[in-house]
Specification:
- Keywords: G-protein coupled receptor, Membrane, Olfaction, Receptor, Sensory transduction, Transducer, Transmembrane, Transmembrane helix.
- It comes from Pan paniscus (Pygmy chimpanzee).
- Odorant receptor.
- It is found in: Membrane.
- The protein is 69% helix and 3% strand.
- Strands 2-1-3 form a three-stranded mixed β-sheet.
- The chain has helices at 34-57, 64-93, 100-133, 138-141, 144-161, 164-170, 187-191, 199-232, 237-266, 275-299, 301-310; strands at residues 17-20, 97-99, 179-180.
- It is an all-alpha fold and 319 residues long.
- The chain is built from eleven helices and three strands; from the N terminus they run E-H-H-E-H-H-H-H-E-H-H-H-H-H.
- It has a single domain, classed as Rhodopsin 7-helix transmembrane proteins (Rhopdopsin 7-helix transmembrane proteins).
Length: 319
């Protein structure tokens, strides 16, 4: 039996599963993308796990900035592990069916991890702002207790505020189409299949994007604008270079996130080329967890030395 066959258009019926069709327009050869995606999937948990172990192993890295990086690595592992197995199962084994509860759980996990990641980036921006603009107060303000409390608040806030997204999606009535032109359970893709009104769903999705992620991004860019203004007033070129080097990796990641998010949520090309917004949506969930460790390791000298020491390739980081 063909699992991709949609149920009949009868409002009295309730479908029991969704069919994730994959990337629209390239269903016949999308399995070729499984190789680079597999490499990214292996790289994301492996590289982030290396960061966590290195930070735990090297006492010189037991600082708030590196603790935040370790927390970001945990979130990246969770995000990659949530979405990648199902995407690869679609490409490898044509396993497109997913039950409604599993789909709603995936919607929650994606939204929760993504919003937590945004909050961690904000904490990292605040950490750099205090370190560069208020260096004398830094040791007394940014402590392990501060990191613990900030992380707890971020997890609690985003964990609670994203709960309504899958709950509202689950309350919709799905009686006709069950094919989602996507590799994962996108909230907008799922609720577009509903037979009843989805205005509340769209409103809450928009509010979540602007209130949570939008406010985080605004504060992040404001922090780095103040940092840049302060750095440009430094008389020493060496001091300026050192200050900027601690922010480069964060800025690279944040700019990448922002660009991909803007392109994927606008759906400007959806009518002509539906592949583009779907593919960009997959990329902004897959690539950052794999690139975060490399971007940070390349710019953070202590962490890079920690990698070398852990792998037996270098000297003590404390030297």
């Amino acid at each position: 039996m063909d699992t991709s066959t949609s149920v009949t258009y009868d409002s009295s019926l309730q479908i029991s599963q969704f069919i994730l069709m994959g990337l629209p327009g390239i269903h016949e050869w999308q399995h070729w993308l499984s190789l680079p995606l597999t490499l990214l999937y292996l790289l994301a948990p492996g590289a982030n796990l290396l960061i966590i172990i290195t930070i735990q192993h090297e006492t010189v890295l037991h600082e708030p900035m590196y603790h935040l990086l370790g927390i970001l690595a945990v979130v990246d592992i969770g995000l990659a592990t949530t979405i990648m197995p199902k995407i690869l199962a679609i490409f490898w084994f044509d396993a497109k069916a997913i039950s409604l509860p599993m789909c709603f759980a995936e919607i929650y996990a994606i939204h929760c991890f993504f919003c937590i990641e945004s909050g961690i980036f904000l904490c990292m921006a605040v950490d750099r702002y205090i370190a560069i603009c208020r260096p004398l107060q830094y040791p007394s303000i940014v402590t392990k207790a501060f990191v613990f409390k900030a992380t707890g608040f971020i997890v609690l806030k985003n964990g609670l505020l994203t709960i309504p997204v899958p709950i509202l999606a689950a309350q919709r009535h799905y009686c006709s189409r069950n094919e989602i032109e996507h590799c994962l359970c996108s909230n907008l893709g799922v609720i577009s299949l509903a037979c009843d009104d989805i205005t509340v769903n769209k409103f809450y999705q928009l509010m979540l994007a602007w209130v949570l992620v939008g406010s985080d991004m605004a504060l992040i860019f404001s922090s780095y604008a103040v940092i840049l203004h302060s750095v440009l007033r430094l008389n020493s070129a060496e001091a300026m270079s050192k200050a900027l080097s601690t922010c480069n990796s964060h800025l690279i990641l944040i700019l990448f996130y922002t660009g991909i998010i803007v392109l994927s949520v606008t759906h400007l090309a959806e009518k002509k080329i539906p592949l583009i917004p779907v593919f960009l949506n997959v990329l902004h969930n897959v690539i950052p967890p794999a690139l975060n460790p490399m971007a940070c390791a390349l710019r953070m000298h202590k962490l890079r030395l920690g990698f070398q020491r852990l792998l037996g390739l270098g000297q003590d980081v404390s030297k």
